[in-house]
Known about the structure:
alpha+beta
Amino acid sequence: MNKILKYAGLLAILSLFTVALTDNTVFANHNTPSKRICGDKICDAQNGPDAEAEREQMRQQAKNTPAAPEEPESPEEEMTATEEAPEMGKEMVMEESFEEADLGSVLKLSRANVPATIPMHNGFYNGEAVYFIITDSSDKTHADTITKNQGWKVELAPPLANAPKEALSKTYMFTNGINGNGVHGFQGEVFTSTPAQPEIYSALTSHVHVTWNDGVTPRVLDSEQAILDAQSAGEVSLQDLKVVLNMPQIVWPGGQMMVKEDKTLSDETPYGGGQVLDIDLEKMTVTFIAHRGWGPDGRTIYYIVTDATPEMPANMMGVVSSPTAAKLIANSAAVDLFQFMNGVKGSGPLGFQPGIAASAPGDENYSPMWRISVIGWKDPASAKILETRADIDSIHKAGLIDVGLAGPMVGGDHIVNCPFIDPFQ
Length: 425
């Protein structure tokens, strides 16, 4: 059975993704072992199930699953894939169409989409309230401190320290003064932009400490101008820190992230229509959809999606459009994320096998910022299940797959903010 996959459908869905390949850049090591998800359980690196055992289980599943029955063509099946493409790192040139072979095998992960409830914080922008989450830190001390204060794991992401200034938004954080739920236990953070200012907004924030000077009675400062005025008056001191935090905004003056209408999750829940299931300003929580994929060694990982560029894929997924993220396209703060556009059918976002990440939380090269690329089998009928980064490298070297950037097909440099999280904490 052959199906013709049309180009228009691919453009609509290429904004979706699973997990990634990264650069080989080595950064400072995370000395504290992080918890990992093995199957549907949390385990540590020493005592958790062997990754190879999980991969073998998936291989047997693929072998034993009967061929899928023939179904009428749907919009998701009417997409194109690649016949030929340049080497990794170069733009992929798409052909009009190709014929997909019915392989008679399916690899679908269970619990492919699960809810993840994350604590929110309250800050300010120009005197108005902003609600946000904190998922990643370039600095271990801040990651540990925020984790303790909010009771939810902040991942260490050393590559974020390499992000250029143009890809960051400045955020003020108080080290003393009025008690509150700020990063350091005092008043809420003050932002210099929101998604309502897309040309300057970034979920990645530079770090400015605000400290009240001795003898001054502290008060709440709810805007950048108020902070600068207090500095001019000798009331506060400011200190720039080389710390970058991932602080996606959930609610801001005049807007909020899209809430998905259909809140029933299944293994087939589509990526479109929003990534948020619920925003609770009373409990100060937001519930995201956590998507399942594979880590670099075949272990299970989960991730959420908060913002993306360009605008087309961001709108498709129902997340914040963040054009400043395009500044990361050639920067080590972003790492490559690959998704499969043909081959073995499965629970991946394009209807084929799940993607593969070359880093995961706890790895020294982990980053939540992903540069989207795609993989296409030259002969879909000969496709095999790829489970690790080594698999991708080997098969690519053998000339069996094409690899290229998704940017040209979605209207620009394709960067997505998808923090890896533990949804079961």
